[in-house]
Design brief:
With about 270 residues, the protein is an all-alpha fold. It contains ten helices and no strands.
Length: about 270
């Protein structure tokens, strides 16, 4: 429970940090706005032509008596749109981070400098960083997609599917959101995807406390755009705590000793 609260605390600290640094916040809004426009256009197209696509994909239902054919296709259309929304939530962060890699790298570096006086650097050229980010994002999306299919199937279980599974879905989505966001700072520190996942698994409560509220908030696209810069800043602050980095005054964040041995191994792997 302590880690859950600490994770949420880092999310709030990140929002406060960008609120106090208006210039970095303004520039960091651009990638989210671009991604929002692209996703909104895709969802509008699906809403307009989704029914036609379902009708084309289910010719066997043409001869069904009324109202069964219409009900069946209506249900499939709703399921298709729900899956698209879930995919949008799962991929919004990854796509926004990919589009805004230079913006968020700069923001994360500014957080590190403000809190500790210097920013770790990967030493890789920009194109290499972009390639690694895209590759790792695809790997994470594949994992998240498998979880999404599983949770969708479990959603048909009576009662459990309407109560427990949605909550579990937010925690799963939150974990992957946290991985994507912390990757901005961890990649600069040379931490590979496998080690990043091991690091977050060692502090699942911290990852859930940070990412689950974001998963809920990101259901509202406009909210996602405005929270993204603060989420990147908060994730950088959380990475500093995971590696036991002191703040600008030389004092460690609360909870830095909790699981420090495991997390330090992950960061230096």
């Amino acid at each position: 429970m302590r880690d859950l609260g600490a994770g949420f605390g880092f999310l709030m600290k990140g929002q406060r940090w960008v609120a106090q640094h208006g210039k970095q916040y303004g520039w960091s809004l651009l990638p989210g706005l671009i991604t929002l426009v692209l996703y909104a256009a895709a969802l509008v197209c699906l809403a307009i032509w989704g029914g036609d696509f379902v009708a084309w994909a289910t010719p066997f239902a043409d001869d069904w008596s009324s109202p069964w054919g219409g009900l069946f296709r209506g249900l499939l259309t709703a399921v298709l749109f729900a899956l698209a929304l879930l995919l949008a939530v799962l991929t919004f962060t990854a796509v926004t981070l990919l589009i805004g890699q230079p913006f968020y790298e700069s923001l994360s570096e500014q957080v590190d400098i403000a809190e500790g006086g210097h920013a770790p650097e990967s030493g890789l050229p920009l194109w290499r960083d972009l390639w690694i980010s895209a590759r790792d994002s695809l790997r994470i999306l594949a994992r998240a997609g498998l979880w999404g299919v599983l949770l969708f199937a479990l959603g048909f279980i009576p009662f459990v599917g309407q109560t427990v599974i949605p909550v579990l879905g937010f925690f799963v989505t939150g974990f992957f959101l946290t991985e994507e966001l912390t990757a901005v700072a961890l990649q600069r520190r040379g931490v590979q995807l496998r080690d990043r996942l091991a690091l977050l698994r060692s502090r699942r409560g911290l990852a859930w406390g940070f990412g689950a509220p974001l998963a809920v908030a990101f259901l509202v696209p406009f909210v996602a755009v405005f929270l993204m810069p603060g989420a990147v800043a908060g994730a950088t602050l959380m990475v500093r705590e995971l590696e036991g980095a002191p703040d600008a005054s030389g004092a460690d964040e609360d909870g830095a000793d909790d699981g420090a041995d495991e997390t330090q191994r992950g960061l230096t792997a």
